[in-house]
């Protein structure tokens, strides 16, 4: 007799059911995989919202969340940060650690021309400042090419009780490069109250500067500068290319004398050495501007400056003011990393 006739019918039926079950399970798993892929494709590639994906697939938003999480966990979907963005992030983090900053913003510059650097750094500063604008905010403002560019890129926000404090005096002649013009433009843009040092940024002699600072209005303005919420400023170097000499605010012989005395840059028209100390020099004794060390009491001090030429001045400016935020360009950021690190006291 044929052997097959002697096999147990129940066992054969059981094997058949098992085979069909396995087939269904395999089919179900395949469908689930396809379903997850469709979900991921719609969300990550076609840019649908989770609600739109749920509607398209006829499932709940919670189910969409679970499917998307599964694709990431299984490695079907991998999140990759753009290599250029990743390098910028790494540079910013390195700069924060090296200079003891809370935040560094590094922007690309297509070339190292002064106007280009000022434009891109100024734009980044404008984005930062525009985001900070709120009711009752008080802003201390400096000057420089980056801040002039910043004023051209501000975003309007409604804010009541906004106050702008100019941190330095101006020029006796009208000029687009007047140090006090940046504060005026900021106040005009946001239609806010403005406090200014109504005196030339450099007066003829030390005695006149002392007499002016003794005036009640100037004393009050100095105190007001100490209590601003944000101080935004730029720095300058002491080369012959620096705006303060090119614009005739100071003479070339002043620059040489300052360099000989150890100055590496100016912060609010106060000339500082590489450690951020305001040097003992006649020019510093006749300046009508807030001493940068006063800003150490300000909660948020931001320096917006770029260019390799200014790296010594930037580092000195951070030390002089206690600034914990820096907005600069890539080339300057890399050059700053080659300088000695900045040691900060915990605060």
UniProtKB/TrEMBL annotation:
<dbReference type="InterPro" id="IPR051054">
    <property type="entry name" value="SorC_transcr_regulators"/>
</dbReference>
<dbReference type="InterPro" id="IPR007324">
    <property type="entry name" value="Sugar-bd_dom_put"/>
</dbReference>
<dbReference type="Pfam" id="PF04198">
    <property type="entry name" value="Sugar-bind"/>
</dbReference>
<keyword id="KW-0238">DNA-binding</keyword>
<keyword id="KW-0804">Transcription</keyword>
<feature type="compositionally biased region" description="Basic and acidic residues">
    <location>
        <begin position="1"/>
        <end position="15"/>
    </location>
</feature>
<feature type="domain" description="Sugar-binding">
    <location>
        <begin position="88"/>
        <end position="338"/>
    </location>
</feature>
<feature type="region of interest" description="Disordered">
    <location>
        <begin position="1"/>
        <end position="23"/>
    </location>
</feature>
<protein>
    <submittedName>
        <fullName>Sugar-binding transcriptional regulator</fullName>
    </submittedName>
</protein>
<keyword id="KW-0805">Transcription regulation</keyword>
């Amino acid at each position: 007799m044929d052997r097959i006739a002697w096999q147990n019918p129940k066992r054969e039926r059981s094997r058949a059911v098992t085979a069909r079950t396995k087939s269904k399970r395999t089919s179900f798993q395949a469908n689930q995989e396809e379903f997850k892929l469709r979900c991921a494709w719609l969300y990550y590639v076609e840019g649908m919202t989770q609600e739109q994906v749920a509607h398209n697939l006829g499932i709940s938003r919670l189910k969409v969340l679970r499917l998307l999480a599964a694709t990431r966990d299984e490695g079907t979907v991998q999140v990759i940060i753009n290599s250029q963005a990743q390098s910028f992030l790494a540079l910013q983090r390195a700069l924060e650690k090296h200079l003891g900053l809370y935040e560094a913003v590094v922007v690309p510059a297509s070339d190292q021309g002064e106007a280009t650097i000022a434009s891109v750094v100024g734009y980044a500063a404008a984005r930062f400042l525009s985001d900070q604008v709120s009711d009752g905010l008080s802003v201390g403002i400096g000057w420089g090419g980056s801040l002039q560019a910043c004023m051209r890129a501000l975003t309007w926000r409604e804010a009541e009780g906004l106050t702008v404090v100019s941190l330095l005096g101006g020029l006796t002649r009208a000029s687009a490069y007047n140090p006090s013009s940046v504060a005026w433009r900021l106040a005009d843009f946001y239609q806010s109250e403005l406090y200014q040092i109504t005196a030339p940024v450099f007066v003829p002699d030390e005695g006149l500067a002392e007499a002016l600072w003794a005036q009640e209005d100037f004393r009050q303005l100095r105190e007001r500068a100490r209590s601003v919420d944000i101080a935004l400023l730029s720095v300058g170097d002491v080369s012959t290319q620096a705006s303060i000499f090119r614009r005739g605010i100071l003479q070339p012989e002043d620059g040489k004398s300052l360099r000989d005395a150890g100055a590496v840059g100016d912060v609010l028209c106060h000339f500082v050495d590489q450690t951020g100390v305001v040097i003992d020099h006649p020019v510093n004794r006749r300046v009508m501007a807030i001493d940068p060390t006063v800003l150490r009491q300000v909660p948020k001090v931001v320096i917006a400056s770029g260019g390799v030429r200014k790296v010594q001045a930037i580092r000195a400016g951070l030390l002089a003011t206690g600034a914990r935020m820096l907005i600069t360009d890539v080339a300057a950021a890399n050059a700053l990393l080659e300088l000695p690190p900045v040691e900060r006291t915990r605060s």
